[in-house]
Amino acid sequence: MDILYINGASEETIRESFESIASNLISGTKLVINDSMFSFIDIEFYYSTQQHKDEYAISIEHLRPKGEFEVHKYGVDISLGNSADEKGGILIRGLYDEVKKQVIPKAQVVRMIYNQFHIGENHFELIQEKTQWTEIFKSKRMHLGKAEGESKERYADTFYRYLAKDKGIFKSYPDKELILKNSNLSEKQIEELIGYKLRK
């Protein structure tokens, strides 16, 4: 099964595919780098095709084939394609170190991945394995800049960020209040997650 499969028939099927991929990556996939193992806790989709012209996805030059990891000025992606028909990636905004039992926010993801490699042969793969994250929620992508033009306006406020719904993660997660204010969670769900009500 292709865990990155996107049904490109329509914008609706593409969005449904994002949901399926996010659920699979966060709840059922781990990243193995040599002797270390990580789970995904925070990912963000950027994807553009004829059916889904998200200009935010083409503001980055995607060079790697689908399924490969790609480093660029904004972080690390899992590539969703680099052809004329489809291009984009899944930005890794947060990982969880399964060995050290610690959260790795976006600012540390690139350094952490590089630090796992050594001279000589390295082992680097995604494996299908259940994680401890059984629930996920959605939020809006952040720091996109000014939404100029029809395409950017259309996709500026989409819920294309997916996060593991877990109290432990959000004890000290960067921008947690902004993430939650822009999420699909109710006020009650947010309070249950972080232990207090957000200010209006």
Termini separation comes to 44 Å
Q: Bin the helical content.
A: 25-40%
* Number of contiguous helices: 6
Structural class: alpha+beta
Rg, Cα atoms, Å: 17 Å
Apparent shape: globular
The number of distinct β-strands equals 10
Main beta sheet strand tally, sense and closure? 10 strands, antiparallel
Q: Uncertain regions: pLDDT < 50 for 5+ in a row?
A: none
Helix and strand run: HEEEHEEEEHEEHEHH
Q: What is the domain total for the residues?
A: 1
Structure description:
There is one protein chain. The protein has helices spanning 11-28, 55-58, 106-115, 150-155, 176-181, 187-194; strands spanning 29-33, 36-49, 52-53, 69-72, 75-82, 87-97, 102-105, 124-128, 136-139, 161-164. The protein is an alpha+beta fold. It has one domain. Strands 1, 2, 3, 4, 5, 6, 7, 8, 9 and 10 form a 10-stranded antiparallel sheet that branches. It is globular, with a radius of gyration of 17 Å. It starts with 10 loop residues before the first helix and ends in a 6-residue tail after the last helix.
